[in-house]
Amino acid sequence: MTRVEKKELHRINERIREREVRLVGENVEQGVYSIEVALRKADDLGLDLVEISPNAVPPVCRITDYQKFLYQQKKREKEMKLKASKVVLKEIRFGPQTDDHDYNFKLKHAQEFLKEGCKVKAYVFFKGRSILFKEQGEVLLLRFANDLEELAKVDSLPTLEGKRMIIMFSPKKTAK
Q1: What is the pLDDT of residues 150-162, one digit of tens each?
Q2: Which helix (H) or strand (E) holds 139?
Q3: Interatomic CA distance for residues 161 and 157, integer angstroms
């Protein structure tokens, strides 16, 4: 955003075109005032009159330092972005003839991922002629789903997409 666009975000001081405004702010008696009185009060305090709610009747204005107001608003938006939940997807790859040791190793990793709150995408990759063993891949993924039953819920059952058979898990909500 350029400086001109930032100025247009909120009308300030003489750009406010209403006759009456509702005044809020620190060191100010809240109430409805004429625009001239509100501007004079802001000027006496050496601050700006900022229109914060133009759709209200009458519009709500705050007496504050405009640059400080913009800074606090930007800071609030940044905090909101940080609090927004981010979904992390972890992948676990199997072959159609994965033996027990490898299976258990990958199962432990999946359990850790789910405890961290990540989604897990497990898939069996068929290369070459191993596509003939689709049933083994499906049995492997269903066994995997059964072993993760207490930590995760199954989002989608095993589906074959090209040379991959995929199953998706998301962590179960735990009571805190």
Answers
A1: 888 888 888 888 8
A2: helix 134-147
A3: 12
